[in-house]
Amino acid sequence: MIIVAIIYGILLALSIVMYWETKVLKDSNDLGNSEADYYDFADRSLNVTARQDRIKKPDYM
Amino acid sequence: MNNIKMNAAGTGVQMKCTACGGALFFDPLSGQMKCTYCGRDYSTSEVNAENEFDTDDTIECNVYICRSCGAELNVNDNECSTFCAYCGQPTVVFDRVARMKKPQFIIPFSVTKEQAVMSLRQKVSASMYLPDNVKRFTIDKVVGIYIPYWLYDIEYSDSQYIEGTIDRSDNKTVYYYFRAADTFFKNITLDASLQLDDRSSRLLEPYQTEQLIPFETSYLSGFYSDRYDISKEDLTGRAVERAGERFDAALIKDMHAADDFTGLYVFHKNPKYNVTDVKYAFLPAWFLSFRHENKTYTMMVNGQTGKIVGGLPMDMKKLWTNIAIHTAFLAIPASFLFYLLFYSIRDTNNGYFAFLSFPLFGIITLLAKAKRNLKDLKKSQSLTSACGLNNYSNQR
Question: Which B residues, 267 through 286, put their C-beta within 8 Å of a C-beta on chain A?
């Protein structure tokens, strides 16, 4: 039981530390990437012209 | 106004201050033309009014070719290019004098070279895992380049049937929804240069396109520019694709206001679009190159907003040392906790095995995320290294 606990302890510690350290590494060395997906158009807002909620399942489905 | 001289001399447009004979360059800080010697300022309109080469829809430039990455660069003054602004290699050769299509609009540089370098230094000094010699890096080359962009105005509408799943305490229900909407996208930006990787240019965005102004040749003075080599027709499909992505995201946001969904699936859509206008514009970016272990890294800075893009080199030895030390410290209390937990459930056979599998799932997930972080960084490094640009160039 002690050996299993030690193995699990090492594995959990290693995975937490690796995740945390690589996150720190990415945040500091991968410049500009955090905003990659937030592409912002100079658009006007969406004009919803028809809105039907909880309707019957369409026939062609 | 009469003391401004314009001449072509067969090698492109040169703007001179006749008060001292010095060359005029566009100054991002003042937004005016500045004499490099006496410091006298001229407004850009004042300079352009005298520009006899600025009458048709083309401008004259010197074209340089990089033998390393294949990039074509245009220099609009009488200065010579001695290295490639994209890959940082000193392998550029003068190719020809050519005329390039004049853009309709431009966003002039508002970030100076000094500000771009200082921003990068601040980012670098905050980095934990940078090799020591890179922390004290000297920038080899700093070049301001106007990147060619097509800007699309698109009217977009769609009607969608969406399947929404609501999951509440063991009660999973599927409902159906219909939405029809329209919108107008103004100035969807797509870079028109084959040389610059699309991912890099997209990371440089957003540009604040409300600051676009009509093009004047004088804004190019002191900077390089790239010519478009992808036509607006070839990029229309991608512009519409981006409009569709943005539209879908906005519609899904509207859907979330209707119900508390755990899953949404668009199973039918009928998009319609109309490209109402396409503009050709030059948008500014600084390219800063430095060398590390015989490899050139080129970082990019948005010349309007100052946003920095690129993958810095990393010190793997420092990373693994930190991981080993922190793991050793954390493993002791973690092992002790596991021992206490295993001891407390030692008599329940089923619970014991469930407890063994649960942490394994967490461990594998965290390791996969760590691998993903490293992969993302290496991808960014390859995009901003000369090697990556070479690979891209070879694909042309």
Answer: 267-268
